[in-house]
Write a structure and sequence with these properties.
This protein is mainly α and about 100 residues long. It contains 4 helices and 2 strands; from the N terminus they run αααββα. Helices cover about 45% and strands about 5% of the residues. It has a two-stranded antiparallel sheet with strand order 1-2. β1 and β2 form a beta hairpin.
Length: about 100
Amino acid sequence: MPRPILTEELDEIEGVVRARPGVSSAEIAEALAERIPRRTLQYRLKRLVDDGRLVREGGDKAARYRTPEAGAPAAAPEVAAAAVSRPMVRVQKSPI
């Protein structure tokens, strides 16, 4: 039977993310006072995300964590403008 997750552990992880928004799980592990196994940290992070206390951005190895109130990172103006100003091109295949 797995041991219950202590609220102090979750609070410490959330505190690290709150201090450094956009942090990876490896960076969180380094910042924690006590070393915990990588898989255990992954379970704790999933729990915090499921509870709405953290937001996960990116996939798998590129995942970054932030608090919901930190907001999503803004796109660079050049990238945002390029995405809006490109005309849509439709490619249609015709028989040869």
